Amino acid sequence: MHIKIPVLSIASCIALSSVYADTFENKHSHDIINTKAAWDSGINGKGVSIGIVDTVINKEHILLNNKILDQKIYKDNTTNREHTPVFTDCERQTCDTHGTHTAGIAIGKFEKTYQGGTNFFGVAYEAEAYSLGAIHSGGRKQPQPMALYDYFKDKKEVKVLNNSWGSNIYPLINSSLTETTTGEYILQTSQETLKDNSPSTLLKTISTYWKGSADCQTCNTTNEAELMRLASQKQVLSVFAAGNEGMVSPNIQSVLPRYDENLKAWISVGAFDPENVNKDQYGNLDFKNKNALATFSNAFYGAETWGILSPGVKINSANAAINDNYKQNSGTSMAAPFVSGAAALVAQKFPDLNGRQIADVLLSTANKNIKLPNVIVKDTYNKKYTIIFIDDGADKKGLVKKDKKEIIRQLKNAGYTSDADKIVANIMKTPEGRDSVYVLGKESVIGQGVLDIQKALKGIAVLDANRLTQGDIYTLTENNTKLVLWDFQKAKQDPTKFKFSKNEHALYTLSVSDNKEMLFSNDISQRKWDKSLHFDKGNLESSPNQLANPMTHFDGVGLLKKGDGKLILSGQNTYTGLTFIESGTLALMSESEYNALKNHNTSKNNPLIPNTLSVQTSAISAHIEQKAENIHKPSLAGSVLVAQNGTLSGSGKIGQNLDNQGNVQVGNLIPASGVGGENNNLEVGGTYTQRKNASLSLVFGESANAKLIASGYKIEGGNLKFIPQKNTFFNINGDKKINIDLGDIPMHSFSNVETNQQNTSLRFLFDVKTSAITPVLNTEAYMTSNTTSSFTNALKTVRAKQDLSQNYKDFFGELDSMMLSSAVYKDSIEQVQGGAHLLATNEVLNIQKRMLNEFYNLPTHNSIAPLASITGGSYQAYNAGSKMTFVSEQKDTFVWKGLFNAGYLNTNNKLLHINSGYIGSSLGLNAYFGNLEGFAGTNLAFGQNSYTGQISQFSVRGNYTDIILGVQTGAKYNIHLTPTFTLSPLAYLSFIHVHTTAFKEKSLIFAKSFGASGQNMLGANIGLALNIALKNGLRFDILSVYENIVNANTLSANARFVDFDESFNILKPLTAQSLRSAINMGFVHDSAKSDSKVTLGVFHAVTNQTNSIGVQVGFLLRFGEKSSQEPQESDSDL
Questions:
Q1: Label partner for 144 (CA 20 to 30 A): which of 24, 246, 569, 1034?
Q2: Which domains are present in the chain?
Q3: What backbone torsions phi and psi does residue 230 show, to the nearest 5 degrees?
Q4: Global pTM exceeds 0.85
């Protein structure tokens, strides 16, 4: 019998027809793996890039358009030419459709299709990808290996690579699947595929299949070798399809970690059929249906600790042949990108995790709550079968001999009623000629379980000793103060001198970078070393299970916290190894406490966000009402060591000892219980030890403090500090002190005792004799550069009142937690003071000033001009309006002029949003004495205003009216430089009175009643105008005026708190200096009966507060004869 050489291929996906069913968006698949929970929380892959090693991708498909950042394409090893992608005419030739389909599953963008409006989502639909077209669809034409390591080694943003391809070699069962010349597939063995081969031999074996029938002399590497380097040296995760041959063990690419313990950034993915899986309300999965586990999918025998299941049957995704078309495929090729997409989501949620750690998260959180049948059948290409009995308790596992009648009986009981006899008659033969009948444990069938994205986004769930390496074993030296790596080389040279002791620890490392936080809310358990899950032939160099240093020495796995950021653990953590905090902070707090503190910190950026300054007061109040025993408090089962640069904070339980060489903060700043008490305590099952340079901080609330309760204490010195809770209202009248309770901790053992004197509204005075703390107000409390002293005194008086409502207590509690120097503190104080409505008054005033300026530059004929402007600076304003001018006929030297304007104004800053409607009118008189022109006029305007704002989570609303009355007088001198150019210096005085009516705000806290107010302003103005009139009727008017208010620089208001009797005044900056400029371009057409003109104008104003720019279009009509004394026309608008 002639045997064809097996070659590497694309995991032999099973193609189905293009079907558009009600599962187009793969809804059943996403439901089972809980993808929607990630999307609902805002995790969708945004900002994340993955790598896809597959066939060439059609980048123009609508699911992938603008999502493939770069694509490299392989060279054929026979021609040394780059492959030309083929996406069409697939019935007559092999097409490159595979990579496009897998890419769509992983990162396909959100697409609302024309097929019934059904939505399509890739798992990480906002992620992007780098494509390595390294695989040929046909499998016969072998590409040259690509420099994958060099391509990805510096792309730090890429932490996962999808590999939906593999070879039909199965070293763990000493077999390869080979096609004969008659088209039959058989299992055979060869010396090269023996299961005790080393990684280098396996790579050599793979290399022969890269060469295929051609002699690839340039193939000095393999894609697998490149991926192994990325995994071991750069911790880039490779996700591999397990294969579709119905084998009991995955393909050779998927099992490489069995031969190299450094390959922890590696996952093998098997497939299940989502349509045949049931999920109950608790998340338990029923795989009892005989078709639930895909019959084609290879099982995980020998790859249990890095195997995982995901959807792989009838999966919809992109059809590369048509840019807006989709199709269904089945295969582990389709299952793998679900996992790669999930890895992208984990990378977005936890950006500090590397590929190995992402693999640990996905594997440890996989859903193991699966009901399986007692027996399953795997189906190979030519209807040969492998039968697997699932029995965790079996004495013997692996290949077994069973009575065929008994096999048939059990198959029929499992649902193979009509097929049992056929299956038994066609059992695949092993290379040794035995029937492929196995007894396996549950993990050998499902690996670590079914992908669960929702749980994965809560962080790691198991510290698994089987997934540790030599680099995870440490020794504590120098009086338990220093952690160093275990020296394997010295141990290997002289095992008698380097033996494990109680100072050695197996530690899983988590690093959080500075200014970042990472919340792990799963209950973290542990798994001890299981020798059966590892290479059992000789001592693999990379294995931590060498004779000189057996991993079995360790009773538990521990955690090493690195980095200057914060790691939050909120679960009931039962791993028993040491928790070593090398640097940064490890915090024990419940999810509700973390969310409350996170929202408090968010409020530092924007005090107007609803529920930020209040930090979701209602939610916290609900926690206050809970009994302490019902609140889920985090715990650590083992001992904890806090190094010199580390911090442990929070409340909960530590099962063994706590050694403090750095900082320990007992209690959360925003505890779930709302008070410093038993629910904010830290309980230590063993001894609490404090070194002489360490610090212990106890959080205290309004009436009690958090306590450190241990079985014993060893205090060598150091500091004892007391820290006030956030969002807590402290009584400042002096008659209510906080009595500190240290329990059994001897205070005299500390070298220093103090309160944490943060620069906030409050100071806390500690009396050592009475062990009591007295809160007092800081002198600088409630004072900013924009508040008046009368307001500050009024707010301090309110703060000291005994009968404040809970709303006011909540507000002051959170306000007093802020730093005096912070921007949010300043904004919060100014929110309470109010008066920001005067900004709109100031802007309406500026608009009317522009209208008053028309008196010296008003067109001498009737006109209407729509205009719009935008203002930026200390506030923002948007104005849209129109003006109308009326001109009398000139009599002698006098011309009467009138102006009417109206508009809408929107003004806002960080404190208020103000809407204003205004109208104004002006009446002026111009007198012409040759080149000298005098003018005088009066102006009256009304502004109706309404505003909305925010104080804490409470809205503020108000309505008021502005009345503006003004007069001005001045002169300009027209210098006719040429018949075309006229230069006109000008000067004038203006007097304006602004009156604001009395009104009352509406708000649940700090509503204010404003009295009527008035302000007089005297302005001096100087300027220069240039008029250019061309013979073709085109003219330009250019004007620039500087104004200075000589008697005032603020607008003022008097206010009183509605809920109290405290009154105060408010001052807001006035536009005291301004420079206004305008350029108008117009075209004039003269005839015997009319003179019409259209102008386009741009104006600009710079003031001591703002910067404005605007445009206007003027339409002017005039009837009758011009006066011979008529001056140069202009319609600049300032």
A1: 246
A2: 27-210+219-373 (3.40.50.200), 387-441 (no CATH), 463-539+548-600+631-777 (no CATH), 789-830 (no CATH), 834-1119 (2.40.128.130)
A3: -60, -40
A4: no
